[in-house]
Design goal:
This protein has 8 helices and 12 strands. By secondary structure, the protein is an alpha/beta fold. Strands 1-2-3-6-7-8-9-10 form an 8-stranded mixed beta sheet, sandwiched between helices. It has a two-stranded antiparallel sheet with strand order 4-5. The chain has a two-stranded antiparallel sheet with strand order 11-12. Helix 4 packs across helix 5 and helix 5 (125-132) packs across helix 7 (161-176). It is globular.
């Protein structure tokens, strides 16, 4: 029979090993990633302006402002020759037709030009109709720009409804330009499709190239509910406390629906947190466009 002190020591050792083996909760992001968030949220915010000829103090310039009257889908394609980027930014909800689009939440089979392997993939009907109404225009412009600038990378970004479109638009860009580096930055993105759509986005764009940011108690990313067949794709970055420009206040979340991130907050829809991301009052700062 083992002595009691030996058993006690063994239990302490086992407990210590078990505790040390637990994954450490990752909190805080790098300053360089925060710089990217504060940069691309300005492109997303600029998409709300009536005109945005030169986002970010003429560091980039708009090549095309697109608009589909039937779906009221708007945004722009810009180019930054310093960073060698082609940026596609989508506008979020601001007019009545946009909210009609938001509420058209039936899941439908996903179909988009140039995207294959979509069996079982479904997306929000309103979001899908909106993105498909401008996809041909966006792809043509991006194709022309890549032909002239083959070493440039692609960025897809947007806020709110625009974030859902940036997700869908990112999948489209990844499928149609498979050899071109692509990064997707979304701010306050609602759930956009079913689990198969989440898997498609993660496969084509890559979980390391998707930055789905959520501000504190923003309620929009909690809708439509999971019970309706929706699921977010990775990777979420949750601002768990303000100020939202401090890298220490942003947590990289695990998987698609991390219960310790924005899924932990009560669903409250559009609220004040939805309108402030990384130092920007979304849609209210025309200076980002001049």
């Amino acid at each position: 029979m083992f002595p009691m002190h030996f058993i006690a020591s063994a239990l302490v050792f086992a407990f210590t090993v078990a505790v040390s083996a637990r994954p450490v909760e990752k909190r805080g992001i790098s300053q360089s990633l925060m710089n990217n968030f504060t940069r691309y949220v300005q492109f997303a915010s600029g998409a709300y302006q009536l005109a945005c000829p030169a986002p970010l103090d003429f560091l980039s310039f708009v090549l095309l402002q697109f608009n589909d009257d039937a779906t009221n889908t708007q945004g722009y394609v810009a180019r930054d020759d310093d960073r060698k980027e082609i940026i596609v930014a989508y506008r979020g909800s601001i007019q009545l037709q946009d909210f009609v689009t938001d509420l058209d939440f039936i899941l439908v089979d996903y179909v988009s030009p140039g995207v294959s392997g979509t069996s079982g993939v479904q997306a929000h009907q309103g979001f899908l109709a909106a993105i498909n109404s401008v996809t041909s225009t966006v792809l043509t412009t991006v194709s022309e720009q890549l032909a002239a600038h083959p070493t440039y990378t692609l960025i897809s970004t947007g806020h709110s409804l625009g974030a859902a479109l940036a997700s869908l638009g990112g999948v489209s860009l990844a499928a149609n330009f498979p050899g071109v580096p692509l990064t997707v930055y979304t701010f306050g993105q609602p759930r956009t499709g079913n689990p198969a759509y989440a898997a498609l986005a993660e496969k084509l764009v890559g979980v390391d190239n998707i930055f789905r940011t959520v501000e504190t108690y923003d309620g929009v990313p909690t809708i439509p509910p999971i019970s309706w067949g929706y699921e977010h794709h990775a990777t979420q970055y949750w601002v768990f406390q303000d100020p939202n420009t401090d890298p220490a206040n942003v947590k990289q979340c695990a998987g698609r629906e991390d219960p310790t991130c924005s899924d932990s907050i009560p669903s409250s829809g559009i609220n004040d947190a939805h309108l402030r991301y990384f130092g920007q009052l979304i849609a209210l700062n025309p200076i980002v466009c001049i």
